[in-house]
Amino acid sequence: MIFFVFRTASAQVSIEACSMKGKASFYAKSFEGKKTANGEVFSNELLTAAHRSLPFGTLVKVTNLSNYKSVIVRINDRGPYSKHRMIDLSKAAAKEIDLVHQGVGSVLIECIFSPPNEAEIEIVPDSIAE
């Protein structure tokens, strides 16, 4: 089970549909505790990701195209800086879609929510929420 915590004053949310295919990887342990581009402290235990251009706070569904497992992550960082990858996932997100052993894999990224004014949103796996 995954819990979504939304902190926004607006009930009206519009999202521009987006869908893209590309390569995904996940953050190394060395990023744990460092600041992300939006100022948060990075945790490999949260369901977050880095993307070059999607607004911070955007929720995206990432599907591993080798097994069709999906996870929903929140964009809170910029990157990846390898031109061959489209998104970097936290290790928790990579585990959800069995990407850890692959290291890099082909994924489908679908935007499902874009917050107004980059409202704060947190996605917490149930193992942490309890």
Overall pLDDT score: 84
Overall outline: globular
**How many strand segments?**
8
Structural class: mainly beta
What is the end-to-end distance?
11 Å
Which strand-content bin applies to the residues? 35-45%
The largest β sheet comes out as: 6 strands, mixed, barrel
H/E series? EEEEEEHEEH
Strand order in space, largest sheet: 2-6-3-5-4-7
Binned, the helix content reads under 10%
The low-confidence runs, each spanning 5 or more residues with pLDDT under 50, are 1-14
Rounded radius of gyration (Å):
14 Å
The helix count comes to 2
Can you describe this structure?
This protein has helices spanning 91-96, 126-129; strands spanning 2-7, 19-26, 48-51, 59-64, 70-77, 87-89, 105-113, 120-125. It has 130 residues and is mainly beta. The chain has a six-stranded mixed beta barrel. Strands 1-8 form a two-stranded antiparallel sheet. A hairpin with a 5-residue loop joins strand 4 (59-64) and strand 5. The longest helix is centred in the C-terminal third of the chain and has 6 residues, at 91-96. The model is unreliable at 1-14 (pLDDT under 50).
Secondary-structure topology with pairs:
Elements: E1 2-7, E2 19-26, E3 48-51, E4 59-64, E5 70-77, E6 87-89, H1 91-96, E7 105-113, E8 120-125, H2 126-129
Parallel strand pairs: 2-6, 3-5
Antiparallel strand pairs: 1-8, 2-7, 3-6, 4-5, 4-7
Question: What is this entry, summarized?
Answer:
This protein is mainly beta.
Spell out the key features of this protein:
single chain; 130 residues; mainly beta; six-stranded mixed beta barrel; 2 helices; 8 strands; disordered N terminus
